[in-house]
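Whiteboard transcription, Tuesday session. T.W. wrote the structure tokens on the left side:
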């Protein structure tokens, strides 16, 4: 939904970081996130001041009191505002932001700033004064453009601000370590639509990365509560509506924004990026945290109604650190994560999980044991085979989506062979006309085990007896 003017400004911001010596996209997006947070704090504080004046309530500024400079002088915290330091000369600005503003946002505890909780190991590494000045200038231009677009197009500021961050994230085109990479937005929307989280359900992603699945679930729930006249068709062929105008009780909004979405990641950089992504999309208090959810320190179980995840595939974990409640005798993370997800679900809870193809047919005991659990102890509802190029340019791995509910009984498993996702399946990933996503969703919603038996069709059912006879090979 971003205009060409905004996209070109974001591209310019990336170019400045690249030429300014920060070539790693993850490092750049993290530094940009810090600047966005500084700007957001200033705007948030002003909004709270206005609200307090209107309601005739006492107001305590986040920028109240004093701070101590490196030279030992006491100065008013008002100097740490974005609106103050953005006017400073280049070298002075760099020194002030690095030595005063950045340490200040790391220690903030007031105002429910969930972002600051994960700032302890954060490092400010913008090396050049000219880069900081240009970045601050481009951000101010971006926000002026966003405000203009909001007024012209009538979009909520939250939507365009969130889209801006999503566009920034789309530039992360190098695979992360441990097999981490971003799940394409349209694949997230497909899985969320199939699993269908609802208002009042607790949603979790135990390997949340940039928070894409949680954001997808939030937008799916908003769509369910948006009137038909405010909905639109996304370029992925999935209907969207982000207004939520049929959510009329403030308590529903509060529950949705503060208590519904939960995520963990074992990389604090990812936690910070994920937090910023959700905050800028309007989820005021996301419950995101640093945690290795396979380790002995992770205590949650049977807590969530919906789990959505694309856990890391390539990794293996130290045997001694694997939580003893995980039954599978393996160190392969793709198997352990599915085990963890089953444990996280309440009885009747649902999951949509991306797994490498090997999970479906791998011959090790752990592979077979996991499939037995899915078929015999859960209701394995569906398997959607994704096209092989879906994760390019990051990886060419072949993947599938497991759709299952905890408890219940597997009687038939629905299979769907997705050939195209609306993008070319090479490294360029350019938009193309072929897109099976709307067809997959329509067939899933209308699926019927008595009728969908033709195995030459795109989607069909297989009776569970046949899977058991085939030694649980999926």
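and on the right, the sequence the group agreed on:
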């Amino acid at each position: 939904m971003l205009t060409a003017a905004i996209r070109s400004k974001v591209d310019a911001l990336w170019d400045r970081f690249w030429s300014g010596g920060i070539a790693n996209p993850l490092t750049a997006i993290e530094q940009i996130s810090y600047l966005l947070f500084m700007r957001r704090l200033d705007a948030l504080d002003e909004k709270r001041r206005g609200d307090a004046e209107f309601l005739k309530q006492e107001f305590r500024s986040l920028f109240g009191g004093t701070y101590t400079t490196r030279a030992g002088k006491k100065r008013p915290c008002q100097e740490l505002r974005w609106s103050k330091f953005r006017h400073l000369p280049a070298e002075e600005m760099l020194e002030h932001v690095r030595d005063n503003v950045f340490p200040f946002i790391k220690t903030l505890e007031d105002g429910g700033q969930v972002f600051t909780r994960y700032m302890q190991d954060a490092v400010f590494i913008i090396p050049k004064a000219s880069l900081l000045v240009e970045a601050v200038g481009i951000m101010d231009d971006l926000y002026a453009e966003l405000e203009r677009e909001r007024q012209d197009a009538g979009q909520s500021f939250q939507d365009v601000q969130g889209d801006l961050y999503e566009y920034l994230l789309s530039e992360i085109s190098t695979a992360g370590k441990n097999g981490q990479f971003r799940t394409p937005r349209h694949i997230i929307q497909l899985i969320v639509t199939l699993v269908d989280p609802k208002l009042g359900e607790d949603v979790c992603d135990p390997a949340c990365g940039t928070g894409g699945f949680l954001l997808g679930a939030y937008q799916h729930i908003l769509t369910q509560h948006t009137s038909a006249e405010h909905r639109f068709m996304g370029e992925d062929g999935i209907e969207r509506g982000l207004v939520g105008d049929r959510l009329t009780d403030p308590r529903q909004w509060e529950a949705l924004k503060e208590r519904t979405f939960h995520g963990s990641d074992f990389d604090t950089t990812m936690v910070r990026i994920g937090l910023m992504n959700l905050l800028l999309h309007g989820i005021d208090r996301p419950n995101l945290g640093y945690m290795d959810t396979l380790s002995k320190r992770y205590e949650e179980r049977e807590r969530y109604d919906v789990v959505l995840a694309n856990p890391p595939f390539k990794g293996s974990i130290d045997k001694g650190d694997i939580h003893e409640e995980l039954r599978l005798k393996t160190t392969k993370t793709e198997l352990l994560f599915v085990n963890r997800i089953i444990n996280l679900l309440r009885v009747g809870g649902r999951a949509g999980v991306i797994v490498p193809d090997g999970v479906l047919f791998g011959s090790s005991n752990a592979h077979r044991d996991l499939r037995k659990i899915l078929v015999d102890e859960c209701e394995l509802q569906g398997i959607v085979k994704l096209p092989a190029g879906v994760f390019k340019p990051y990886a060419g791995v072949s993947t599938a989506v497991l759709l299952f509910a905890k408890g219940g009984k597997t009687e038939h498993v629905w299979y769907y062979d997705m050939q195209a996702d609306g993008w070319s399946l090479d490294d360029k990933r350019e938009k193309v006309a072929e897109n099976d996503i709307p067809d997959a969703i329509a067939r899933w919603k209308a699926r019927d085990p008595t009728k969908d038996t033709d195995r030459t069709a795109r989607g069909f059912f297989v009776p569970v007896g046949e899977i058991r006879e085939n030694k649980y090979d999926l």
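Someone added at the bottom: The mean pLDDT is 89.
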